[in-house]
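Section 5.1 Outputs to date
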Amino acid sequence: MNTQSLAKLRISPLHVQQGLFASLALMITLIVVQQFNHWNQTQDTTQIEHAYSHSAPFAKASALKATDVALSLQPVDEAATAIDQAPRQQSWVF
């Protein structure tokens, strides 16, 4: 049955050859574009790495002074009283 339906479509061997050639050309084009994109990405990453390798050296991290840390911390008693003074909101837990 399939041979009869193909015969009705009147597909000649030339049409098959042209279709195969178009598929091959499309496949080659896609592979070339994919390789070109891959090449561009590797070039970009090497340029970025090269730019960062020549940048200024990292600044030294400075530690906080003990007085700065002491001023930023508040005693535990003050924090506990602040929590106790806040009104409690009723909430439902399921």
